[in-house]
Amino acid sequence: MQNFFVKSHGLGNDYIVLNEERIDFKLTEKAIIKICDVHYGIGSDGILLKVPSEHADFGLRILNPDGSEAEKSGNGLRIFAKYLYDYKYTAEKSFTIETPGGLVRAEIIEAKNEKAFTIKVEMGRAIFESEKVPVICEAGECIDQTLNLEYRDYQINCVSVGNPHCVVLKDELDVDEIMTFGSQIENHKIFPNRINVQFAKVISPTEVEILIWERGAGWTLASGSSSCAVACVVVKHGLTERNLTIKMPGGELKIEIDTNWNIEMTGEVREIASGILSNELINSDI
User: Fold this and answer.
1) 113: buried, middle or exposed (CB in 10 Å: 19+, 13-18, 0-12)?
2) Domain CATH number, residue 116
3) How far is the C-alpha of 103 from the C-alpha of 72, rounded, in Å?
4) Which DSSP state fits 41?
5) Distance CA 127, CA 165 (A)
6) Global confidence as pTM
7) In this structure, what DSSP letter does residue 227 have?
8) Which domain holds residue 106?
């Protein structure tokens, strides 16, 4: 069906999935913003666009609600994998997906009534080198470095898991604090490509609680790549074991990190709705 969409969520982090070959309009920055708007469009944390790939079974572009493009999204990858399996693009329970942030493998762990329910994604290898995150930092790795904001300083830890992250370790978490300072950190001049922000509190050797400010989206209930980034930082600090549960306002993810910093993420996904984008939307000013 032309202009068919599916909307799903991973722990409250919701995406609209489209197939590039089955839409008859140009997905411009303006169109992305309009479709993702909760009042004038469908409303979502972004768009997942199925595209061809020469290097993997499937290709994926991840479009933020502000019209920018992300390199990788953990929840987005699980949602996309569910879409591919549920809508019969593949009968296999294990397949590869190419993103701008690298090639990953997805595996359907649990399915109910022929619909994917729990999905594991191999998220690739964590990178701490400052220039590869990227972050402008005199140290080779931006770990426990001071970030000066106008009204507050933070000790930050930067890592790339296919997209850039800035993790702040906290004794207590405050939603108002990340809502106030998340954007300032995201857009700080030391981050050439902006950055995703997480405040994290270690609860036990196997549990960490986090709050998320997502680049291009803002306050977010859950994020797969953020969970992976935080897990890598707390493991690097020796604060936890390598198999972790990351707790977010939207729910929990299981993260496993091997000794070479390769990451696996497991979590549930749910479909919200499917349908056809209206001609009145497509033929409007997008």
Assistant:
1) exposed
2) 3.10.310.10
3) 10
4) S
5) 10
6) 0.92
7) H
8) 4-124+269-282
